[in-house]
Amino acid sequence: MMAIERLTILGSTGSIGVQTLDIVRRHPERFKISSLVAHSRWRELAAQAREFGVESVVIGDESHYAELKEALKDTTIEVMAGNEAINHVARSYRSDTVVNALVGYAGLHPTALAIESGKRIALANKETLVVGGDIIMAEARRKGVDIMPIDSEHSAIMQCLEGEQRRSIRNLIITCSGGALRDTARENLANVTPEMALRHPQWSMGAKITIDSATLVNKGFEVIEARWLFDIEPERIKVVIHPQSIVHSMVEFTDGSVKAQLGNADMHTPISYALLYPERAAEAMEHFSILDYPTLTFAAPDREKYPALDIAYECLHRGGTAACTMNGANEVAVASFLGHKCGYLDIVGAIRYALDNASFTKHPTLADYDLANREARMLAERYLTQKR
Ligand code: NDP
Ligand code: MG
């Protein structure tokens, strides 16, 4: 009989957060939730808190504190608000594992604090590793903390690497659906609206990552994430377009053998793998049949249509704060695009502008990342204002 594992879920109201709760619901003997964290959706948060009988909840946006407090006033659940409270629950002794499903830079410090206090991490917030992968992984190694990827590609690679020796790895091959604009010609990209870019062909996800999937910023981020998670040189991380999203990624070994991990495009599988490892869920959400997919295709990405991919490799080669700058500028530009305040091509434009104008720190600390993030956001705002 395994001891009950106490979870803190950061971002419980989001796409990954809600699916994480589905997995927890199926394993009441295995997990107990200590804390839930959301940003604005306080009603959903209150309902989740009641259902799972948590000890505490945090609402990131402090303007919803009073409403949340009122909604839970007949319970003993502790109600907190703001970033300091998020940091507090990330490092609280009341949990064993932190599931980080926050979106964006906001995930970095909570991950770092959870590692510092020796917690196991189930990581959906890839921005943590994009921004600070070298520091975060070094800290995790020092603390003996496991970082379990939730991102489907990295979960696939991890599964392919089970039982293998490091020196046998030749290449990691990350698959990419191609996103919502896969079939849009390059000359039509200037007219792409948020509604068009949000129509992802395979995956249903939060708005920011869906736009990142359309620009391939997401795939660039996944290359950076893989570089740190698996400690492998960028040259040995390849990206292939695979429109069916059935092969979630592959590993090529030195003897010419290639392992792939396949399954439905359903995040419940990598979430449950991260939570239950080394066990597997006894029952799938939805069973997979290879006969439903008689044709699986693969192609090289169009690097001119998707400049973000090469920009991500460029950031890896520059190291230091470069990827943090890319991430910060992207966050601002995606929010602006989603608000119909800039065009689709301005997203990569803002990233390029920020990278070309930002200051650069070769060996940053976490505090340096805060500065680089702020500067990147400011530069992206300036670029987008000039374009208007
Ligand atoms: P969503 O936008 O659906 O959810 C984000 C969650 O974080 C919500 O609970 C939101 O709260 C909360 N949140 C947002 N901003 C802040 C903030 N500033 N401070 C605290 N909390 C905040 O995102 P996803 O679930 O799609 O993605 C989460 C992470 O997982 C991202 O890093 C993404 O790249 C990664 N990922 C997602 C996949 C997916 O299938 N969705 C697949 C692979 C990776 P509220 O809603 O209450 O405002
Ligand atoms: Mg992914």
Walk me through this protein's architecture.
The chain is an alpha/beta fold. The chain folds into 2 domains: 5-149, 3-Layer(aba) Sandwich (Rossmann fold), CATH 3.40.50; 156-264 and 304-387, RNA polymerase sigma factor, region 2, helix turn helix motif (Rna Polymerase Sigma Factor, Chain: A, Orthogonal Bundle), CATH 1.10.1740. Helices cover 45% and strands 15% of the residues. It contains 15 helices and 11 strands. Helix 4 (83-91) runs parallel beside helix 5 and helix 6 (127-143) crosses helix 13. The longest helix is centred in the C-terminal third of the chain and has 22 residues, at 366-387. It starts with a strand and ends with a helix. The model has no long low-confidence stretch (mean pLDDT 97). NADPH dihydro-nicotinamide-adenine-dinucleotide phosphate is lined by residues 11-17, 38-41, 60, 86, 101-103, 106, 124-127, 151, 203, 205-206, 208-209, 267.
